[in-house]
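Researcher: Go.
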Amino acid sequence: MDRETILSMVRDTKVVAIVRRVPADYAYDIAAALVEGGIQALEFTAETPGITRIIEDVRRRLPDSIAVGVGTVLDGETARVMLLSGADFIVTPTVNQTAIEVCGRYGKLVMPGAMTPTEILTAYEYGADLVKVFPAGVLGVSYFRSLQGPLPHIPLMATGGISADNAQEFLQAGVTALGVGGSLVPAQAVRAKDYQVIEKEARRLMQAVFEHE
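Model: Structure:
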C-alpha cells in the first residue's frame, strides 16, 4: 500500500490501533479482531519478540486494504528492517531524523513522536507525514487545542491515554488521528485469547470516533 493511500486512510478512519508485546502466535487473531471491529491501520511495536515474523504473517494474511505498520522504532536501521519485512508504515517515539529519511527513501509513511512545539515542527520539517504527540493523556486536550494556534498546518496523532471515552474530545481539539493501545487491546483479553472483547472494544472506539459526524 502506497504512502498517500495510507495517509488518506488514517485521515478518514482517524484511528491507529497499537498492539504492544503480544505473543507472536496471537498476533494475527488480535489483528483480525481489530479489523472486524472497524480498524484499518494496525501498529505492532518493534520491541515485541518475533516482530519481523509477526509483520510478515499478518501482512500476508490480512487484506491489502488494511495497513500494517511498526511502532517504537528507534533508528533508521530498524525502520529499514521493518519495511523490508513488509511494514506499510513506521511510527517512532522520538524525532529520529535517520528513521524519517529511510521511510522517505522507501516511499513509506512515517509518524515520528514528539511533544514540544519545537519537536513537532522539527519532525514535520524532516518529512513526517503525521506527528505523533505523546503522552496525550498527560498533556491533556487543552494542550492540543493550544497547538492549533502556531502549528495548524501540521497533522497530529494524539497517542497515550486515548480511549472511546475521550476520543471525541481530542478530535474536537484539532488532531487528525488517534493512536490507541491499552484500552483497545486489554492485556487480560490477550492472555485469555478473548478476541471478542478486542473486537467489541474496537467497535466501541469507532462508534465514539464517528458519533458526531
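Model: The longest helix spans residues 195-210.
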